[in-house]
Amino acid sequence: MLQWLPATAVIAALLAAWWIIVVETESAIFPTPLQVVTGAWELVQDGTLFDHIGASLFRVAAGFLLAVCFAIPLGLWMGWVHGAYSTLNPLFQMLRPISPIAWIPLAILWFGVGDLSPIFLIFLSSVFPMIVQTVSGVHTIERRYLWAAANFGVSRYTLFRRVVIPAVLPQVIVGMRIGLGVAWLVVVAAEMISLRSGLGYMIMDSRNAGNRYDLVIAGMIIIGVIGLMLDGAMRRLERLRSVRWRYVR
Amino acid sequence: MSASKIAVEGLEKSFPSPKGTLPVIGGVSFSVAEGEFVAMVGPSGCGKSTIMNIIAGFDRPDGGSVLVDGAALNGPSPRGIVISQHGSVFPWLTVQQNLMFGLTDRHGVDDPHALADHYAAMVGLKGFEMSYPHELSGGMLKRVELARALVVKPEILYMDEPFSALDALMNLRMRNELLRILAEERHTVVLITHDVEEAVHMADRIMVLGPRPTTIQATFQVPFPHPRKLSDPSLQALRAEILRELGVEA
Predict the structure, then answer these.
(1) Is the CB of B84 inside 8 Å of chain A's CB atoms?
(2) A158 at the B interface (CB within 8 A)?
(3) CA distance B197 to A101
(4) Contact (CB<8Å) B101/A241
(5) Strands (DSSP E) found in chain A
(6) Whole-model pTM above 0.90?
(7) Is it the case that residue A183 has pLDDT exceeding 90?
(8) A92 touches chain B (CB under 8 A)
(9) SS3 B9
(10) A148 in reach of chain B (CB within 8 A)
(11) How confident is the model at residue A68 (pLDDT cuts 50, 70, 90)?
(12) How far is A116 from chain B (nearest CA, A)?
């Protein structure tokens, strides 16, 4: 419990400084923390806040899960079969540094301004880190484990199910943490462009429709808190008993 | 000739190196009888592990042949299980899952759980079946490795410095455990070690390997019955003689 104390103190100090500065400068536009809370409370009461959160989470979940289903099998294949790696890796390394934001025009062209565009962008943003982590997981399996499997003469199916996949799992989980992190980053950016729902839309709309900076800041804080919770959920996977070996010592 | 379990003839192996090819094994021939415990001792880096990798089927020789039961070796097989210094117990499986690993694709095993538990008890792992390897000590891990090998009832155990990562006390304890198990279930054993005392303690026959490219420099019979006392003067005399062969005065 004591380790939380400094972190809480820093945040409290920041809030206090913010409050004092706004009051002292008598700013007309920039809200105090209290105004942010009351602004957010209005949205809670009329229910729109949860609609926005739900819309954003749905897009992240859809894009992220699609990316997981695509990246993990592909990463295992690329890690195991050298030809697949040397064929596909250069392409992926080229696509990887392109920011998902740069894909927005194409996404709108291909998928319109509905839910599909942000889902596509989230897929793009989270798929590459997960492929990279899975491939490197396969490449770093220690030879002694593969030799042991060969020594016991197990089938290819058992080799994959009992050795390769569990050996790679800790790296896959790291990839999923990174992937979900960028997915959350990207959904907000994608929603700022179009659509009529989501936390990104809420932020842009609050600014455009009457300079409601209290809601802009409320949106930012909610994004941060949800991001923290998503990462916390992913970290729980690291506590599975069968992957603990990689994280202990 | 046909009576030998393992027959190695004229084994040669080189590895590519920045300065050209590096000959590691320079013509090694020996045979091991069924149920025999043979040890190979030699200086570190002399190519002991390379010999082991070849006779266990993980590597191919440049020249010479390896016959097991009179048939040419065709890759690794559960008939001969390797136990090496750093071990290969799967850290993501429990002790019991590790022990049952070799049985996964085997038919005709009535009760794999019972078989795994039998060998867990034999090596003193009772009560640890559901533990993960990272929860165990180095000595316990060696027991898991040994039990996992015994479960598939291998004809041969290939042991490459099996206990050298353990402290002296645990090393001695594991030797005694191994000898006790071998008295119950006779396996053919090929042991590679740099520890002459370990070889004299356990083996029926000791081959001394020379420096690279290695050949068999001398062979010693160990005529003492088990259980052997390490303090026995004749055993100590044999140890000194082997050490002298290795160029060390003891």
Answers:
(1) yes
(2) yes
(3) 68
(4) no
(5) none
(6) no
(7) yes
(8) no
(9) strand
(10) yes
(11) very high
(12) 38
- Whether A82 contacts chain B with CB within 8 A: no
C-beta atoms of A241 and B132 within 8 A: yes
Q: Can you tell me the ipTM of this complex?
A: 0.91
Q: B72 - beta bridge partners?
A: B67
Q: Which of B54, B43, B34, B30 lies closest to B246, judged by CA?
A: B43
Tell whether the model's pLDDT for residue A1 goes beyond 80: no
- The pLDDT of residue B33: 95
State the amino acid at position A70 in one-letter form: F
Which residues in chain A are contacts of B105 at CB distance < 8 A?
Answer: 153-155, 158
* Segment-wise mean pLDDT, segments of 10 residues, chain B, 250 residues: 81 91 92 95 87 94 93 92 92 94 84 90 90 91 93 94 90 92 92 94 94 91 90 92 88
What percent of chain A lies above the pLDDT cut of 70? 98
What DSSP state is assigned to residue B224?
A: P
Contact A152/B101, CB-based, under 8 Å? yes
Q: Which two tokens stand for residue B249?
A: 């005065």
Contacts of B92 in chain A (CB under 8 A): 166-167, 169, 242-243, 245
Which CA distances in Å does B183 have to A34, A115, B157, B187, B229?
80, 71, 14, 9, 16
Nearest neighbour of A144 by CB, restricted to B81, B84, B97:
B84
List of long-range contacts for A37-43, beta carbons under 8 Å, 24+ apart: A37/A218, A38/A214, A39/A212, A39/A214, A39/A215, A39/A218, A40/A214, A40/A215, A40/A218, A40/A222, A43/A202, A43/A215, A43/A218
